[in-house]
Amino acid sequence: MKIRECLRIALLLVILLSSCSEDEQKVELQLQDKTWVLTTYNDTQPIAERHPILKFEADQISGTTGCNHYGGTYQVEEDSIRFEGIFSTEMACLEPEGLLEQERIYLELLRTVDQFELTDDQLTIFVASTPVLVFEIQSGEAASIEPVSDPNDSVSVATVPTSTIAPVYDPPEGYNPYQDPVTGISIYIPQDWIVTGIIEGEYAILQSYPEDKYVGGEMREEGDSKCDLLIRSEGERVEDLIQSWKSNSMTTIVSDEEFIFQSGSSGQRFVIDSMGRAVVFIIEIDQRVVQLTCFGDFSKTDQIAATLQASE
Question: Which CATH architecture has domain 162-310?
Answer without folding.
Answer: 3-Layer(aba) Sandwich (3.40)
